[in-house]
User: Which sequence fits this backbone?
């Protein structure tokens, strides 16, 4: 995000616990100035963007009041919103918070995988709530526009139920497909794995720490959506086992039509 | 396949029940000559390539003896091999058969989706058996080389168990993911569906007739592999529900490492 914001804000300040990360980000012109002391950086920060794994975001939010003296606007980029917004609601009035979730990502992470085009034309969800000041919502909208994304304003819980269905459960089926292939006990499967397997399992290569945070912070919605996918698989297995071709065709066709219309 | 064989064989003869298909294929130089009467074409055919859905291949094989007078070499391109090879074993000695499965495909079908590059650098499985003459195996190997694929010779049953794992079950999980999203009863899911959902569900857009044939002809192997994927999903759900973070991390990490090493 800092990469694509070059020239689009007064200054991009960066914090990392590791000085090598700061040095690399400065050398690549990803940030303008960098700190390994968060409190020092916050003295000069107008808008703080939390872009770490969800558990780190949840750890940091309650520590913010002790680190700041003046007002602060706060946004996070976590992939689940309910728990984070709940933590934000406990912040003092000097902090004006809003939740954010840019709907883009890669299965690679770190500065070497940084991609200035990552946000372009993607949906960027904002979840304002009663504690969000109007100027923070405005600033967050400017941020969404500056990175080239499309704005979508949502209730945090509705967001979490939807992303469980279209992101978190697909991650789990990817993991299960790789797991099932490992348990086939025949190395031939890896030799035969073609584009279908590659695409179906791409999400299984995601950063585990990040994904586990997402699953854990969105547990009820993930379990509910996963149960629906499990039901669907069980029904498909039963239709195939029974040789119920007519009903199997109907089910396959319903999903085909829906999927074919999605990405034109 | 006929498209990429231009200039690489004496002549490419094409059969379709529909004359418009023949006309289109001739106009696009995909075939050199075309027939809507299979028996007439077979009078001039050395090597017959069956490239229809599996059920049509299985229908046609027993009808071949009545359609030919001289010798014929036969290969099919069906995605499951055990049933087709079993049908080939019942053919008279004048026909020398071999099973084939090029490990490539698209979720679109028909002449308009034809792609000369489809076979390039992909694995092309051949399943010769006791009825396969040495010259037919040689010719099939030439075919694999001519379309630019990489040869892999396999036992039909082992092939079928492996493709169930890496192709047929990923199709079913794709279908189940779309089905689960449909049952979320919130149109927001389609608006939020990003690249993860797109890739995880690409296979659900496949031709239903073709996929149903594959599933039905490979039923035992598909059900066995599907049960393994279902077990894996159930275990992931249980670990998430129990909050067993250590074991969940271990499972996610095992699949991540395997998947990350697959496609470099």
Assistant:
């Amino acid at each position: 995000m800092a990469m694509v914001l070059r020239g689009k804000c007064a200054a991009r300040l960066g914090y990392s616990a590791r000085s090598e990360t700061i040095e690399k980000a400065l050398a690549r012109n990803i940030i303008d100035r960098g700190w390994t002391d968060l409190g020092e950086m916050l003295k000069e920060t107008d808008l703080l963007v939390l872009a770490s794994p969800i558990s780190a975001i949840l750890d940091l939010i309650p520590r913010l009041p002790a680190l700041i003296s003046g007002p602060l606007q706060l946004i996070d980029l976590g992939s689940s919103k309910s728990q984070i917004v709940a933590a934000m609601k406990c912040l003092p009035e000097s902090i004006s918070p809003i939740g954010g979730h840019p709907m883009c990502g890669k299965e690679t992470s770190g500065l070497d995988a940084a991609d200035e085009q990552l946000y372009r034309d993607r949906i960027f969800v904002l979840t304002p709530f009663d504690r969000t000041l109007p100027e923070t919502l405005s600033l967050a909208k400017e941020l969404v526009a500056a990175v080239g994304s499309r704005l979508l304003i949502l209730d945090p819980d509705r967001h979490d139920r939807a992303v469980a269905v279209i992101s978190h459960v697909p991650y789990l089926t990817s993991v299960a497909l790789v797991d099932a292939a490992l348990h086939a006990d025949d190395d031939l499967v890896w030799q035969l794995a073609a584009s279908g397997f590659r695409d179906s399992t791409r999400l299984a290569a995601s950063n585990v720490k990040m994904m586990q945070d997402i699953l854990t912070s969105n547990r009820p919605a993930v379990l509910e959506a996963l149960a629906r996918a499990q039901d669907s698989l069980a029904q498909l297995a039963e239709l195939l086992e029974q040789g119920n071709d007519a009903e199997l065709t109907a089910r396959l066709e319903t999903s085909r039509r829906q999927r074919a219309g999605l990405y034109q």
Summary: Chain A is about 50% helix and 10% strand. Residues 156-182 of chain A form the longest helix (27 residues). Chain A has a mean pLDDT of 95.
